Amino acid sequence: MTSTSTKGDPATIRRLYGRRTGHKLRIGQAALVENLLPQLAVPEGPLDSRVLFGDDRPLWLEIGFGRGEHMAAQAEANPNVGIIGAEPFLDGVVGALLEIDSRGLTNIRLHNGDALDILDRLPDASLDRVFLLHPDPWPKFRHAKRRFVNPGPLAMVARVLKPGGEFRLGTDHPIYCRWALAQMQATSAFEWLIDGPEDFQQRREDWPQTRYEAKARRHGHEVWYFRYRRTDAAIVDPRAAAL
Predict the structure, then answer these.
(1) Burial per residue of 92-120, b for 16 or more beta-carbon CB atoms within 10 angstroms, e otherwise
(2) Which long-range contacts (CB under 8 A, 24 or more apart) does 45-52 make?
(3) Are 134 and 63 in contact (CB under 8 A)?
(4) Which domains does the chain possess?
(5) What is the pLDDT of residues 58-113, one digit of tens each?
(6) What is the pLDDT of residues 182-219, one digit of tens each?
(7) What are the backbone dihedrals phi and psi of residue 235, each rounded to the nearest 5 degrees, phi first?
(8) Is 58 within 8 Å of 84 (Cβ atoms)?
(9) Distance separating alpha carbons of residues 26 and 229, to the nearest angstrom
(10) Gap between the Cα atoms of 60 and 81, Å rounded
(11) In whole angstroms, what is the distance from residue 14 CA to residue 154 CA?
(12) Hey, how many other C-beta atoms are within 10 angstroms of the C-beta on 35?
């Protein structure tokens, strides 16, 4: 995965993914990609709840959903919410399709690509919740600009979140944890929802575990859970900043 910048503005950084597929798909997996994915794929053009689900239900977005276990669990627990999942890697999309198919879920739409493309096409204050769980930490300092938690992408998230909407961030990487805390503290668009250490050291009941968290726990890694509320602070549209 590499990153480029358009016009040098951090708000326009795009992640370009190289190898987006892994092993050859089995027959059943290929059938899901051929038959189910087109039914669930996010369409082209501007997006809102009516375009995606045909009604005015609340919208959530998961950025990089891995194999989809968290997204599927949230969809099952919140059937009146529409969830958009963005994942560039086909193996992850296949995992999500398996979850959706086995659980009979109808309230998920999938984007096999960069979440920034989805953020670009959503209207202001259109999301109630955004998830970023165990993102690629890019641990080397020279790669820090490739981390999602940076001013440009955060401005895009802030634009589409409703005031009072929630941004959830989970990581087991200490470098990313420190980086994210610094970046989030530097913006007035988000307020950290915290009353004590248990708020970021223990996963909430309504926060299903991902396979990445389970793997981290098996290796004895600490995991941190952060919740931020979108404030009423004004934010410059990052798309306009690039003009």
Answers:
(1) bbbbbbbbbeeeebebbbbbbbbbbebbb
(2) 45/121, 46/121, 46/123, 47/84, 47/118, 47/121, 47/122, 47/123, 48/122, 48/123, 48/126, 49/82, 49/126, 52/82, 52/84, 52/109
(3) no
(4) 47-241 (3.40.50.150)
(5) 999 999 999 999 999 999 999 999 999 999 999 999 999 999 999 999 999 999 99
(6) 999 999 999 999 988 878 888 889 999 988 889 988 99
(7) -140, 140
(8) no
(9) 42
(10) 7
(11) 13
(12) 11
Q: Using an 8 Å Cβ cutoff, are 144 and 179 in contact?
A: yes
Q: What are phi and psi of 222, to 5 degrees?
A: -80, 150
DSSP assignment of 64-122 equals S-TTSHHHHHHHHH-TTSEEEEE-S-HHHHHHHHHHHHHHT--SEEEESS-HHHHHHHS
Q: Residue holding tokens 């960069």?
A: 114
Q: What is the phi/psi pair of residue 112, to 5°?
A: -85, 75
Residues tagged active-site: 136
Q: How far is it, in rounded angstroms, from Cα 8 to Cα 28? A: 44
Tell me the residue ranges of DSSP E strands in the chain. 2-4, 14-16, 59-63, 82-86, 108-111, 127-133, 161-171, 190-192, 224-230
Q: What is the pTM of this model?
A: 0.86
**Could you tell me the pLDDT band of residue 238, with boundaries at 50, 70 and 90?**
low
Q: How far is CA 101 from the centre of its chain?
A: 21
User: Can you tell me the distance from the alpha carbon of 233 to that of 190, in angstroms, rounded to the nearest whole number?
Assistant: 8
In this predicted model, what pLDDT tens digit does every residue of 176-186 receive, in sequence order?
Answer: 999 999 999 99
- Can you tell me which residue has the tokens 């004895």? 220
Compute φ and ψ for 183, nearest 5 degrees: -65, -40
Host H or E run for residue 29: helix 27-35
Report the C-alpha gap between 52 and 109 in whole angstroms: 7
pLDDT at 126: 98
